[in-house]
Design goal:
The chain is mainly alpha-helical and 85 residues long. It is built from 3 helices and no strands.
């Protein structure tokens, strides 16, 4: 498996929507150092690490957390673009 791909089904649409919401709250925060932005980023990282450890690391050894992290952030940006008013 290529490192630029997330294994099929690793992140559900519901999880992606939740991750995108958290991502939006810290990536595009007016003050990225605010408590709310830092909490959203921490929650995003915790959830992403959990998904990686549960579904990716043990089944797809060639996919690093860094690659998974970058890909999910990219998917979050795309999700936000498609689902923003």
């Amino acid at each position: 498996m290529s490192e630029d791909r997330i294994p099929e089904g690793a992140v559900t649409r519901t999880e992606l929507a939740e991750l995108a919401s958290l991502f939006d709250r810290f990536e595009f925060a007016f003050d990225p150092r605010s408590l709310q932005a830092r909490e959203a980023e921490s929650e995003f990282e915790t959830r992403l690490r959990g998904i990686f450890e549960q579904r990716v690391a043990s089944n797809y050894a060639s996919v690093t957390f860094a690659a998974f992290h970058c890909r999910v952030k990219s998917l979050c940006r795309t999700f936000l673009k498609k689902n923003s008013p």
